[in-house]
Amino acid sequence: MKITVIALGKIGLPLAVQFASKGHQVTGVDVQQSVVDSVNAGKEPFPGEYRLEELLQEAREAGNITATTDYAEAIPGADAIVLVVPLFVNDDTWEPDFGWMDAATRSLAEHLTPGTLISYETTLPVGTTRNRWKPMIEEISGLKEGEDFHLVFSPERVLTGRVFEDLRRYPKLVGGLSEEGTKKAIEFYEAVLDFDDRPDLAPEKNGVWDMGSAEAAEMAKLAETTYRDVNIGLANQFAKFAESKGIDVFKVIAASNSQPYSHIHLPGIAVGGHCIPVYPRLYLHTDPDATIVRTAREANMTMPAHAVALAKDAIGGSLSGKKVIVLGASYRGKVKETAFSGVFPTVSLLEAEGAEVFVHDPMFTADELKKFGFTAAEEGQSADVLIIQADHPEYKEFGPDTFAGVKAIVDGRNVTDANKWPGVERRVIGAAG
């Protein structure tokens, strides 16, 4: 097949490489010339994705993948087009910003030829595929969906750093606007993906699953991620209450989860990443009455402030003039990614308290941290307070010899060892102070 992948980001490029690894001819489209140049040179444009550069080089050597910025080169004659263009959400209104996706959709529609399957993999509010993309593509292309081309929604369900593994592990969900479109999408994904055996899914088998409609596929992706945000919100509520009563919430959660009907997640200083903080807002876009979803999202957004309050308590009052090091710019451990990371509100809140704030992260250079507006911390420097924001494994080994003069620690991820910090006031979110 001739396949076009639009947007060669941290999901799109691994997808393109996966398709090419199955022997198909793949053209990737990206607005950044630097990304296109890297792909055509067989070099990954961003670090951290397991086996990406190795598989990209193999695909380039086989002549199965190329990249361009030109839609006119990539779209005509394609058997299938897969879009993984970012969808943003306004921080103030929580409304989706379709700007980039609208632009990509218009560009592909201008060059669309009959007989093409179009699959959107970017997470969308329910109804977007049918009510936004279908009329837009039909109007611009002059072609009719269901006759001249087929349109489906098939959400990406992978995490950066382990995309190739997750593509095999999880069922591929497909929802079309017509029975024929769904059939073609199933045939397409069965031709480009491999699936691990999953006896735990019985009586279903791992593979491509027909969701029955685009709306069901859209909701499935929103539901699985919104569930996590709501669950973490509940865990954070439990954590705050446990702290006030001198209870270790981690023991409570372990005890609760020891029977099969409880699956309580872990509390923490922040919920970050491209997915969990964003997709509940996309769900609320079409279900504004979902009070549980809204409350959980708002509760999770209070956790950086809670961590700063714990720091003030641990230090014995004001943070004004105190040297505070936030450990972790990444939104989660071992990932070089800051999307919606708790580092941003935590640093802002500390600065508002008058603290002198530094940021440490083993995955970022001092110059990279500076670009975010942070002052980089160096191991060996002095600090009054440490706040653990990301659960990088290095932080488990830190002790008084790492940063001098530490008087208080707020562990937002429950990763530090109290025995390594004798005489230091230590607060763990969800544990007794």
Automatic annotation (TrEMBL):
Recorded GO MF terms: NAD binding; oxidoreductase activity, acting on the CH-CH group of donors, NAD or NADP as acceptor; oxidoreductase activity, acting on the CH-OH group of donors, NAD or NADP as acceptor
One Pfam short name: UDPG_MGDP_dh
Annotated GO biological process: polysaccharide biosynthetic process
SMART domains: UDPG_MGDP_dh_C (SM00984)
Residues covered by the UDP-glucose/GDP-mannose dehydrogenase C-terminal domain: 325-418
Coiled coil region boundaries: none
Xref: SUPFAM superfamilies: 6-phosphogluconate dehydrogenase C-terminal domain-like, NAD(P)-binding Rossmann-fold domains, UDP-glucose/GDP-mannose dehydrogenase C-terminal domain
Gene3D superfamilies per the UniProt record, alphabetical: NAD(P)-binding Rossmann-like Domain
Keywords: NAD, Oxidoreductase
Family: Belongs to the UDP-glucose/GDP-mannose dehydrogenase family.
Protein name per UniProt: Nucleotide sugar dehydrogenase
Species whose genome carries this gene: Corynebacterium aquilae DSM 44791
